[in-house]
Amino acid sequence: MDKQRKRTVLITGGSGLLGSRLRQLLEDAGYQALILSRGPSKPPYSYHWNTDEGVIEHAALERSAHIIHLAGAGIADERWSRDRKEEILKSRVHSANALFDYCREWQISPLSFISASAIGIYGDTGEAPVTEEQPAGSGFLSEVCQKWEDAADRFAQLGTRVAKLRIGIVLAREAGMLPKTWLPLRAGLAPYFGSGRQFYSWVHIDDVCRGFIHLLQNEELSGAFNMTGGEAVRNKEYMQTLKKVTGKRALSFGLPPLALRLLLGEMSEVLLMSNRVSSEKIRKSGFDFHFERLTPALEDLLKAVN
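Structure (tokenized):
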């Protein structure tokens, strides 16, 4: 394998929020980042794929030594209808299986396959600290994550190193939890969910991207790694910290679980489940978080809007 290919990384979901930031940081680190996109092919950096139709451009896999699998429909973007749940599962699992099938058919063995996963694999774990040794829980999110990781593990059959990053609640300025909770603050409201005592294990988007690069660069690392900041915070504490960082005066109040379930259906479990997840394993591998505490993380992400 030539030197240039060893520095080439193929990203699925590379045009999304996380993928776009990861591409920037990979290029800053001296890698060439290619993406698989459902849009038109634009070689040499963007290639077409459509797993519904069984289409992946051969050149994308042939040129790449590493694959980072980020593709997946947003967990909390829409109410969980039966069709939406199928899309959430299929976009992660079927796409990974399609990549594996094509690599096997074309006799391509990537050096590494690094897959996103999520702390949702543990289910609702309440107050107890959670490490990677925790068995998978129950519920839809856990089922999705288990199948997601199983699909990634198939790449070991090709002699490929497999690593999985179990990501917490990603804090980013552009999308996800932060803008959704910042919006009501602007109207003077600071709602929390249920009792507000459930633990949220959050992580800054840049630390997530750096986590993928860490797994890419350290060839001895394989298996699952939690990716969460240094402190899990309770939902109510998160809202109070956001109020403090933004300087907004807002009325705090709880939204009853029943109201959330009526409004959001099964998807309300995302807001009501509690996970106090430890990232000690990836720290011991040499990874240093840039954002250990919630306040500096929020200050960094909101500095452009304050």
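The chain has a mean pLDDT of 94. The first strand starts at residue 8 and ends at 12.
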